[in-house]
Amino acid sequence: MGARSKYRKRAVDVLYEADLRGADAVSLLSERVGSPDVPPVNDYTIALVEGVTANRVRIDELISEHAEGWTLARMPAVDRAVLRLGVYELLWAADVDDAVAISEAVELAKQLSTDDSPRFVNGVLDSIARIAVHLRAAL
Q1: Could you give all domains of the chain from N- to C-terminal order, each with its CATH number?
Q2: For residues 29 and 75, what is the distance between their CA atoms, to the nearest angstrom?
């Protein structure tokens, strides 16, 4: 697993925990930064969590629009976290190619979620990636 993949997984862990606890992900992450009880938090992980949090309303709207037959509330929490990270990287992370953002999200779904999740995550993100040029222009 590459370094950025590890940082993405850490970001998903924080987003997932915040979702389950009904907490703010940035606040949760702040508690961990510099804490002697947890491994150091990389700047890329921080940027991902902050980016997802700052754009969460729009990210959730897009997921809801493209997750045919699924509401956010009905999705497994880990799938929500993976999709939020994937959408953020697709639309706001200029240094990440769309194919890489999708591939990394699918891999996280394989590692962390159900057998059906990788296909679901791929489908939602692929649908968003097809219109990403138009979405980026509107941001």
Answers
A1: 3-138 (1.10.940.10)
A2: 23
